[in-house]
Amino acid sequence: MWSCVNRPTISRVPFHLNMSGMARPFDPVAGSLDRMGPRSRGWDGVTKRLAVYVGGLCAVVLLGCSEATDPAQRVHTLTVTPPTVVLNALGASVTLRAVAKNAEGQEVYGDSPGWASSDTSIATVNSAGSVVAVRNGSVTVSATLGTLDASASVTVEQAVAVIEVTPSGANRVPGETATFSAAAFDANGHPMPDSSEIRWSTSDPGIATADGTGAVLAHSDGLVDIEANLDTVVGVATLRVAPPFASLGGREAHVCGVTLDGRAYCWGSQGPQIGDGSFSIQHLIPSLVAGQHLWEAVSAGSHTCGVTRSGQTLCWGGNAHGELGVDSTTEQCFSIACSTIPIAIAGGLSLSQVSVAEGHTCGITSGGVAYCWGVNISGALGDGTSTNRSKPELVTGGLAFAAVSSGDTFTCGITTTGQAYCWGSNANWQLGDGTTVNNRLVPVPVVGGLTFQSLNAGTTHVCGVTVEGHGYCWGRNVERQLGSPGGPDFSATPLPVTGGRSLSQISAATFHSCAITTDGEAYCWGANWNGELGDSTTTSSAVPVRVAGGFRWASIHAGRMATCGASDIGVARCWGINPDGEVGDGTKGSRNYPLRVWGTPSP
Fold this sequence. Notes:
Largest sheet: 5 strands, antiparallel
Shape: elongated
Oligomer: single chain
Number of helices: 0
Strand order of the largest sheet: 29-30-31-33-32
């Protein structure tokens, strides 16, 4: 039991009441007895008073005695500030302050109050008065000090800070629909509870229009912003409405295509062969060919040539060997023989079709007369010589051709009656004449008695489609690019493509081949080192495998190690090797499945 009996005492000790009403001994000279050394307190059972033993002295004081209380330290009122708070994001916080005042309105400092939230699932509060938003709703946060309490109203009401639109970019042709979705988030990245009020619009309704669900209909080619609006906050995605392509082609590291309305675009490796006036710029997405020409067809190889709708034949790119056909190799761009824009071939010839390869070009007139120019070391020009030509030279033999196709060092064509002829290098037996005799300087017939509706010459092999729709290939078969798994490594005669499918078009590359069936399915076979077969693998195949995606194709062209095609509504897609941007999706990474051209990731 505590007692001051028989102990040294302090005759009179004033006490201050702290904010919680507890007595604290205080000496006017020495200050708080709390600072005067070790102390202890307890209830004096003898005197029925508070006994305080400090520094060897003892004081007995009647609790609550007004004579021992400092009125300036007694708490009269308690308030919480700010009294009203709105938190606009989950996880957002605010620190409330409890203000204690005496009867004169002066702030009293001392013990800390206790804090509590009326609903901790909406907002929590810690011992320092820090309030954190948990979910939307309203709570009362209270502070308690002794017998006094006060409160503040806290409302958690998320406000939109960011709207994310998915996908961030898309690519469509006129008439196609792209579907976008949007999600709204508060300032701390927490999703808003309801994004159904988002309003959709586009920056140019002439290019595309949006409905209330995020479905965007493409109208005409161009670039347009897709906007999702909510509470004055806007999220933006991009839609490129690409011109639909009628045809695509590219043998080397660049690709060109002609749109349905006659514009020509090229993309891929840097150099003058792109035709937009540039020389050293790598084009990862299509670039419009200069000149405002309307094109019927364009063919791309080491250089590029095309036929306009008005009957002109124009070429551009490197011209070191006369492959542009302008009767000169003195055209200069950056100290080399080339042209960065389309220029007319010599002789004023009006060609209906043109085909470009590695260093030479061939074409035919509307009357079926064939001409070639450029590199002729192996006799690829078919003029009976091995002399390079810088202007179009007549192909020997007097044959009437329906189409010609240039291989790397050779050329093939189909006559108007469907017979196939080839000339030039036969190093890989690609002339199909049943022999291994090299360098045929004039056209020789392909053996087998087949009647072809189309054919395509690759680097070292040739493929064609007969009038019955059957596929045949000949030449190099080391990588099984002939589509005949049991065949020899080289074949001097046409071999049937395995599978028995009815084909409408076929294309020969370097180590692979591709074809389209009459019902619009695409198949490829041969080497697949860089995904050029487009079946979502890099596994080579001796038999045709279907190109992934389930698209319906109208045309296809197999390049050296990349492939491009146009769908039945003109959507251009490419796949395969891509170090120079030949896939046209805005990147330089190889792709093993078809991706839309124009720099968007959508399939």
